[in-house]
């Protein structure tokens, strides 16, 4: 059984310059949006159970040197597949990148607005006059605006503070009253392990249309490649296996990545299980159309694209 390989982006560039082996048509490179973590478990389990090999594929997972560069690198052909965020896909399309979603990895939002459970904020209304820490502007700003509006507030009612990637530490230290953008399957557990219970407000329960947190993207001229439906078939079988055999799946995950065998990743693994797409190739056209309309309404894009411009269903 082949172990999933890693290389840096620099290494990838070197590999791209080498002569391709005879079996190159069956190789696939997947550029991750972040370092390997439980969000990527279906691909790890597919490799560990030989599901990619069953499909005649040799799949290489590549953590990014710069997470923000993933869309550009996939568009430029530096990897066959990228792991991306559905909201950002619309922004990349508006910027002219030739990307298209062909599958879903995590089919629910993971984003939250988080406060301390024992603090004074019991509802979004209580955020009036408070400080909210954030890491990345853009979609999260629109998400917050819609969530506040659901309670009769606007962004002018709060003070936004850039805490870079120090979301939970800033909240625990009292530097901010809430954080924007923490993932419900990681930051809440991280806080609990450090002795602080968090309270999360979910965007899809406060006016933001549901969306896929993580999707598989490729460049448009690769959308008809016969390897993609085989890749999704293996991922689907892995996701179903994880649902049916979670403890065995966790054992396979940490066998592949023993450095991730700790309390935080274990809890994140099991918390993420119900959020993995069990039909990763399925495309909900109406859902994508609604979300595009939301981004247009919030002013993040000038016009919502037709769904077929940014999302396809392969292997039909």
From TrEMBL:
Keywords carried by this UniProt record: Signal
Protein's recorded name: Hydroxymethylpyrimidine transport system substrate-binding protein
Keyword Signal appears in the UniProt entry: yes
Pfam families assigned to the protein according to its UniProt record, in alphabetical order: NMT1
PANTHER family hit by this protein: 4-AMINO-5-HYDROXYMETHYL-2-METHYLPYRIMIDINE PHOSPHATE SYNTHASE THI11-RELATED (PTHR31528), THIAMINE BIOSYNTHESIS PROTEIN HI_0357-RELATED (PTHR31528:SF3)
SsuA/THI5-like domain location: 37-249
Database matches in InterPro entries: NMT1/THI5, SsuA/THI5
Signal sequence, start to end: 1-24
SUPFAM superfamilies xref list: Periplasmic binding protein-like II
Record's keyword annotation contains Protein biosynthesis: no
């Amino acid at each position: 059984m082949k172990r999933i390989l890693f290389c840096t982006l620099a290494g990838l560039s070197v590999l791209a310059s080498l002569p391709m082996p005879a079996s190159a048509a069956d190789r696939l490179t997947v550029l991750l949006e972040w370092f390997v973590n439980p969000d990527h478990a279906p691909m790890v389990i597919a490799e560990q159970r030989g599901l990619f090999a069953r499909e005649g594929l040799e799949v290489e997972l590549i953590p990014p040197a710069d997470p923000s560069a993933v869309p550009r690198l996939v568009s430029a052909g530096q990897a066959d597949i990228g792991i991306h965020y559905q909201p950002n896909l619309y922004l990349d399309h508006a910027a002219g990148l030739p990307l298209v979603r062909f599958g879903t990895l995590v089919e629910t939002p993971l984003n939250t607005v988080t406060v301390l459970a024992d603090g004074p904020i019991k509802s979004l209304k209580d955020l009036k006059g408070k400080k909210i820490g954030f890491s990345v502007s853009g979609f999260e700003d629109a998400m917050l605006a819609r969530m506040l509006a659901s309670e009769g507030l606007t962004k002018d009612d709060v003070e936004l503070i850039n805490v870079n990637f120090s979301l939970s530490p800033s909240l625990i230290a009292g530097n901010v009253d809430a954080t924007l953008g923490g993932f419900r399957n990681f930051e809440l557990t991280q806080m609990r392990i450090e002795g602080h219970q968090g309270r999360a407000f979910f965007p899809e329960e406060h006016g933001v249309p549901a969306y896929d947190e993580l999707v598989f993207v490729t460049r448009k001229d690769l959308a008809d490649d016969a390897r993609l439906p085989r890749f999704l078939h293996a991922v689907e079988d892995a996701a179903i296996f994880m649902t049916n055999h979670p403890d065995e799946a966790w054992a396979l995950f940490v066998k592949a990545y023993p450095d991730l065998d700790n309390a935080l990743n274990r809890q994140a693994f099991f918390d993420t299980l119900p959020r993995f797409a069990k039909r990763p190739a399925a495309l909900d056209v109406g859902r994508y159309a609604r979300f595009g309309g939301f981004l247009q309404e919030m002013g993040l894009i000038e016009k919502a694209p037709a769904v077929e411009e940014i999302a396809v269903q392969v292997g039909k």
